[in-house]
Fold this protein.
Amino acid sequence: MTLLTKRMVEKPWGKDILPAPFVAPEGKRIGEVWFEPPPEMPSILVKYIFTSEKLSVQVHPSDAQTQAMGLGRQGKEECWLVIDAEPGATLAIGFQQDIAADSLFDAVLDGSVEHMLTWHPVAAGDFFYIPANTVHAIGAGITLVEVQQNSDITYRLYDYSRPRALHIKDGLAVALRGPHPGHHHRKLSPNCAAQLVEGPDFRLDRIHGPPELSVAARYTGAVLVAPLSCTVMINKQLVLPGECALAASLAAIEFPASGLSLITQPV
């Protein structure tokens, strides 16, 4: 068992008071908590995100696009599971309608791109899959878990006048200019198990208690586990909520009779 190293990342839109079990260092605005991918599984990054302000409007390239740039497989497909949200909290994925390239360019320059996006009111249990090339933004007052391809290539298209670099040319070159497919959004019932992602890059399940046999049959080899509302045990070592660990196999993890966990591995 390997307990993944936890790294707190400061962000201008982060929070100085984090939800339990996380504690922000004094004077720091923490926007993300990363679990450093282990050498045995370098292609997946698990992180928590905490927002007090809107994140930038951004987009990520695909593997095919980064390979064409000579960067190797650095594309980024990701997904979000909302853990908590303040009343009225929203996040944006895709556009309300198809947009012409020149219209999108103008909207990015004048900031009206924010109002062209589809903003979803969210609560705990909302799940979104975000394919590469999808323009998106996370609003204020949200705590979520993100599971993604391990890539840090982000093209910021609009950032609410914050003094950070934008990547308009690169971003518009890869951005899809239409709506986000509806089947990529689900609302999960409390305490229910759910198969969330099955490829193309990783699989992800939320389980309640031990995994069902049909779930266990899909997971072979090493697996990452992130307890959400319980503790699990691997080789007689506890893994707590707010932690993430690598197990040699799903069978090596002892799950309690109840409680939510996330499990994931590359496809």
